[in-house]
Specification:
outer membrane lipoprotein receptor (LolB), chain A, 53% strand
């Protein structure tokens, strides 16, 4: 959260949902360098606080990518974006990500976070 500065631009209806329209500006040149984004605008559903759509701008502040969340599912009271489309506006390419069989609270063993486990496969 501290890597970006946020400003509420207003409210808009997106995909039949009332959303906050939020501008996200990188807090430093390092963030721009790390992400490649000069700005992000997010539409966040007011009712459930889920991102519905995001518009990403390149370093020159030209529209670059658009993320559309096609579906959210709720599992044990937690919302997950289960179907998303990312469109590269500049090269006109689209990728769709669909997540299924999501599980929460499955119990992750403590050794999962050990250095040895995290470095496996190197």
């Amino acid at each position: 959260m501290e890597d970006w500065k946020y400003q509420l631009l207003g409210e808009e209806i997106v995909h039949d949902k009332l959303c906050y329209k939020i501008e996200c500006l990188p807090d430093s040149e390092d963030i721009i360098k790390d992400t490649g984004y000069g700005k992000i605008i997010r539409w966040v559903e007011k009712k459930r606080l889920n991102t519905i759509q995001s518009l990403y701008f390149d370093k020159g502040l030209k529209e670059w990518k658009r993320l559309t969340v096609n579906q959210n599912i709720e599992i044990k009271g937690i919302d997950f974006a289960s179907d998303m489309t990312m469109e590269d506006i500049q090269i006109q390419h689209r990728s769709r990500m669909i997540f299924s069989n999501l599980e929460v609270d499955t119990g992750i063993p403590d050794n999962f976070f050990s250095i040895r486990y995290l470095q496996r496969g190197r």
